[in-house]
Each structure stands twice: as C-alpha cells, then as structure tokens.
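Annual report, structural modelling task.

Input specification for the nicotinamide-adenine-dinucleotide complex:
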Amino acid sequence: MAAPSGLAQARSVSLLGATGSIGASTVDLLLRHAGAYSVEAVTAHRRADELAAIARKLKAKVAVVADATAYGALKAALSGSGIEAAAGDEAVVEAAARPVDICVAAIVGSAGLKATFAAAGAAKALALANKESLVCSGELLNQAVRASGGIMLPTDSEHNAIFQILNGLDARHAEEIILTASGGPFRATSPAQMRLVKPQDALKHPTWTMGAKITIDSATLVNKGLELIEAHHLFGVAPDKLSVLVHPQSIIHGLVRFADGSVLAHLGPADMRVPIASCLAWPQRIDSGARRLDLSEVATLTFEAPDLQRFAGLKLTQDAMIAGGGAPCVLNAANEIAVEAFLEGRLGFMGIPDLIAETLDLCTGRGMTAPPADVHAVLTLDVEARRLAAQLLPHIAARSW
Ligand code: NAD
Ligand code: MG
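The model returned the following structure:
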C-alpha cells in the first residue's frame, strides 16, 4: 500500500542534530508527511527540553544528548512518553548506527564525524548535511558508504542541485561543475571595513537562515571552499573541473556544463526544505512546503566571479583541496577554532583566513598532512590541528583588529 504523501512505502528515518537549523527543516518535513516516515532516533548536543519536544512530536523511539550532564533533564522531559533516553558521545554514535532507510546527518563540524561514519554503515541512504565529515575524510566516508551498500544523498543545496542535474549520470562526463554562492553579507565591503566586522554583522546572511558556524563560513566564503571539497568527493571530479560563481539572489544553486556547450542549472527558493525533501523522498518527490519560485517576481539574476583577494579563505580551501591528504582536515580544524574565537570576540574577522593559513603552514611543515589512513587517524589529526591553531590564535588575534 502506498504511504500517504505519495511515497511507495513508508520509510524509517534518524535525525542527527535535530535541534539545529537543518534539524528544524527536517522536523518540519517529517511532520508534514507524518504518515510516510517512522522516526527511529533523534540526537542533539545538550538542549534536552528542545530535543524531548522534538522526539515527542515525531514519536521517535530514542532521543540522545551528546552532553552526558543533560541526561537527567532529557529523561525527565521524556517521562511517560515511552521514548528511550540516552546520553554521551558514544550513545549518539550508537543511535546513528541503528539501521534505517535514511539518516539525516546534520551535526555541525567535525564533532559529527563519528556519528556520520556510524550512519554511513547503517543507513540505506545517508542524507549528508555534515559537510565537515566529507571535507576531513572524503575518501574514507565514500568507502564506508560503498562498503555498507548504501548511497549518499547530498543535502547541501548546491550539491543537491548538481545531484538532481546529473540524475545518475557519471559526473566525469561533465566539463565543469559550478557551485553558486550568494557572496554573503560582505560581497561589496571594502577590505578596510571587513577588518571591522563584528559577529552580529557576519551573522546577518542576505539569503539563507542557518546555524551560526555555517553563517560565519558563508561570510568568509570558507563555506564555499568546503563545498568545493565536498563536491570533489561526492561527484568524484578533479579540482580543476570545479568552480564557484557568485550569484547574490541564491535562486540558481548549481550548474553543470557539458562538452557540447549545454549548461544545465537547478533553480529553487532559498529554503533548505527543498533539498532535504528531495533527499527524504528520493527518487520520488514530496511537497516541501516551500514558497514556489516566481521568476517574474525575482526579475533579475546576476553573476560575478568571487574575489579571492578579499576572501582569502576560499583560495586557501581550493589550495587544500588540490593538496589533498590531511590538508583539508587541518584547514577545517583551524577554521572551527577561528570561527568559535570570532563569535566569542577573541579574533578579528580577517584573522579567520590568517589562522587557517598559519595552521596549515605549521602542520605541513611538521609533516602532518599525509593522507590519514583511517577514521581514528582523522580524529587524531583534527585534535592536533585544533591544539596548534589554539596556540597560534593569540598572535594572529593581536594583528587581526
Ligand atoms: P546548527 O548549529 O544549527 O545545528 C547543529 C546541530 O548539531 C544541533 O542539533 C546541535 O545540538 C548538534 N551538535 C552540535 N555540537 C554537537 C556535538 N558536539 N555532539 C553532538 N551534536 C552536536 O547547524 P546547522 O546550520 O543545522 O548545520 C548542520 C550541518 O549542516 C553543518 O555541517 C552545516 O555545514 C550543514 N549545512 C547547513 C545548512 C543550513 O542551512 N543550516 C545548509 C547546508 C549545509
Ligand atoms: Mg551550501
């Protein structure tokens, strides 16, 4: 019997990072199509009350907080619901390892690595939002998905766009894969003004509403660089076939050019429910609830090349992609330390690419950027690169204002 919502069969789903921005969009979709999905596990960092409310709404089987000190609050908030409560990093990984049809992996940062790998081994489809996993360990994650016989569905809007355009075609047939970027809030800001940027300015993204870390990454364009590395691993294409096009309206999300000169584009509203719905229903379709795109209302689509001088973080990520091995993991670790410090007022905005560059230099000089052999080596490199970035931070901060 067809499940409500038009899916041929009901699907089981787990949601890692349920209290975040991607989490909220996914919860919205699961509630819209409640009959079509049964929810296995939901996880969060430490907001126990919020997670319990989500678990109750979704009728999840288990809810897990990574922070063990939040266990009591979660247990109390779930009392009488019949929903199992668990806590701790290992409990998150165990929840991710439950077999499901789809796991939406939406923990932010390399903190999501272990759970994402666990999901890669257990879910028939890994709907990947946690791009840092692919950046740090793309080859290993691809291997994990292949070994489990599952598939990876890109949740990131640009990659979901490319996935839809290719529609099963080997990406190596493409001449160029183009990811669009809004350009962020400082697209037209002078270098002198960029030095003065405050967290509250950088948190105002012009077109997307997202979690704090990715919003800052979008303001530095490091996000777009991470997305190039993500595309490199998702589609198996060489770095020189990948490019970035600034498109401030965020209507076209990705483009693919072929040898005959054809360019195929994916258009849609800037609403993450669109790519997430595509993953949840793939290869079928469900209503995302997103406002339908009216191009006569949009009227103008504009494009420009990214400015690699003002947005040095984009150039650094491109270089790290070309260098490969452990370089992207080091870059990601340094970026996470830099973004956290910027948000806490300990580093100037232009100090973010500086800290990345110096951490990469230091780690490369120490021979740390050889390809990590396994997930354990990736996690070790992440910890060590963070430690070195934190050591470099005060020197870089002092000259970043
Ligand atoms: P967010 O900060 O809004 O949410 C992050 C989630 O991860 C929360 O549920 C939080 O509880 C959980 N989390 C944080 N630290 C954790 C830890 N140590 N252990 C376990 N759980 C932890 O982030 P977001 O904007 O939803 O982004 C999530 C991921 O999706 C990121 O990798 C981001 O790059 C990617 N992504 C987000 C968007 C977007 O529109 N928000 C778009 C594309 C890709
Ligand atoms: Mg994106």
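The chain has a mean pLDDT of 97.
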